[in-house]
Design brief:
Structural class: mainly beta
Oligomer: single chain
Number of strands: 4
Largest sheet: 2 strands, antiparallel
Shape: extended
Strand content: 15-25%
Distance between the termini: 22 Å
Number of helices: 0
Length: about 70
Amino acid sequence: MDEGQRIWVAELAIPLESLTQNFDPQQLWRANFYRVEGRSEPRQYLSWQPTFTPKPNFHVPEAFGTLRFS
C-alpha cells in the first residue's frame, strides 16, 4: 500500500491448469475484478473496470479489461 500515491498492489498465484489447458503467454485475456463491501444494504459494489449497469451486475464481458502476461 502506498498511501502517498493512494494505491495498493495485490499479487496472487493461481495454478494455470485450473484456468486453461493450453497457456499461450502472447494471448490476451479478458477479465474483471470485483469487491462487494458490506454484509447488508446499502452495500458498495466496486470493480476494476466499471460495468455501468443500473443494478450491480458483474456478468458484463464487454466491460472486462485486458490482461497481458509478461
